[in-house]
Design goal:
Helix content: 25-40%
Distance between the termini: 28 Å
Strand content: 5-15%
Structural class: alpha+beta
Strand order of the largest sheet: 1-2-3
Number of helices: 4
Radius of gyration: 23 Å
Largest sheet: 3 strands, antiparallel
Shape: flat
Length: 176
Amino acid sequence: MARGSKDGKDRGRGAGCLPNREAFERMNFLLQSAQFYASLPTTTTTPAAVATGATAKGKEPDEPLALDNGRSDSSSSGAPPQAPATMLPLARFYAKEMRLVSRKSVLRMSPHVKRSICKVCLTPLVPGISSTTRVKGQKRSRRVITTCNYCQAQTRLFVNDDHVLFVDRPEHGTIS
């Protein structure tokens, strides 16, 4: 008999229970991690330059130093190697893992989540950072064009004020 159950029936199958809850929680964590790492700045400063206020190649101490392929300007001075300039490879890894978890568990991702990830290179599409978003067309044929800044793939979504996604309808009955 289940704990807290008066009639001996399993309460795990009620309206408040979500099957594969752990998989959804993992997918949520991976999405948040991918979006976080995609939104990190693409330039960084070296710890030595911050600590001493030194400049590299005539730049002001307040300016961030751009890194090329994970090598900083102070690599010849014996300083430890720096992290890569962007975290997009890690963000793509997390997005790929999220897609693999959803496929392995046979779970459907929300259309909102699918639209926030590039279908070609799996880069999380953060407007202004990893993607460019434009609105084109006249009143009847407006569309939102999202371009991935990494692979230049474009997605076009028509804008219809009357259209509501199936998962956003009140009769859908998703668990909130």
